[in-house]
Design brief:
Helices cover about 35% and strands about 15% of the residues. By secondary structure, it is an alpha+beta fold.
């Protein structure tokens, strides 16, 4: 018959992902070994690598029509608006589709407690105030040394 065998696309994708992961592990091990022998001043700074491969799409329909293999997740950036999409397909082939919007946030909005002026909180009484209350109620405070 035919000398070629058919390849299951899912098995091929899984094998390709495993090979890429092994290549990344070997590169990390090599970089660690090289850093032991290289002087600190001569080390090159590497750009941080992203663990997400962004797919550029044109609008929500382009994102919905993006094919995602079962067991995988696709991260898609919209070219036309400040949103991104996440489409996940479970092992049974059921897809979930989520839309997120980019919005600028000022640094002050993230730390509201630090940006507001600090006011003294009157939730606790001082020892002097407590002793004054006890004497007013008719009980004398005892002078006990607390062991720490």
């Amino acid at each position: 018959m035919y000398p070629y065998t058919t390849i299951d696309p899912q098995a091929f994708a899984n094998e390709q992902a495993m090979l890429q992961q092994r290549i990344n592990q070997l590169e990390q091990a090599r970089n660690q070994q090289m850093s032991m022998y290289a002087p600190q001043s001569q080390q090159q700074q590497q750009a941080p690598t992203s663990n997400v491969n962004w797919i550029q799409v044109a609008g929500i329909e382009g994102a919905r029509n993006q094919i995602v293999q079962p067991g995988h997740t696709a991260w898609m950036m919209d070219n036309n608006s400040p949103v991104f999409y996440v489409k996940s397909v479970d092992g049974m082939g059921s897809a979930t589709f989520k839309v997120f919007q980019f919005a600028e946030i000022s640094p002050e909005a993230l730390n509201p407690a630090q940006s507001q002026p600090k006011e003294e909180r009157q939730e606790y009484v001082t020892r002097q105030e407590f002793d004054a209350l006890l004497t007013r109620l008719g009980e004398k405070p005892e002078n006990k040394e607390e062991s720490v």
